[in-house]
Amino acid sequence: MPAGVIGPDGAWLTRCATDGSTDLACVTLNRNAPELRIALHAARPWRATARDGSLYQQRRIDDLRSHDRTVG
After folding, report:
1. Higher pLDDT pick, 61 / 5
2. pTM given for the model
3. DSSP letter at 43?
4. How far is CA 39 from CA 42, 49, 52, 55, in A?
5. What is the pLDDT of residue 65?
6. Which residues, in sequence order, are CB contacts of 4 under 8 Å at separation 6+?
7. What is the C-alpha to C-alpha distance for residues 15 and 3, in angstroms, rounded to an integer?
8. Count of Cβ atoms closer than 10 Å to residue 70 Cβ
9. Which residues make Cβ contacts (< 8 Å) with residue 26, sequence separation at least 6?
10. How large is the C-alpha radius of gyration of the chain?
11. Separation in Å, CA 59 to CA 23, 44, 54, 56
12. Within the chain, where are the H helices?
């Protein structure tokens, strides 16, 4: 399978040659392209909040047993 670059929407942006020759795949991603708007700005908007920890902040439990992780 030749190398290539898949865009944020899951489609191939470019692919290398399939004849076995040496090749390099490079693309310039335009983050403002209308066809990538949903993939970059609307799909799975919860990921950013999950990564920074604010998504589950209200559900966190503060239990003393969780602070002491030694086995006794």
Report:
1. 5
2. 0.52
3. S
4. 6, 17, 20, 20
5. 74
6. 12, 13, 14, 15, 16, 25
7. 6
8. 4
9. 5, 14
10. 21
11. 49, 20, 10, 5
12. 37, 46-52, 64-67
- Token couple for 46: 């919860």
For residue 10, how many other CB atoms are within 10 A of its CB?
Answer: 7
**12 strand-pairing partners:** 6
Contact 32, 41 (CB under 8 A): no
57 alpha-carbon distance from chain centroid: 22
Q: How far apart are the first and last CA of the chain?
A: 53
24-70 pLDDT per residue, tens:
999 998 889 898 888 888 877 777 777 787 777 777 777 777 777 77
Extract the tokens encoding 55: 């998504």
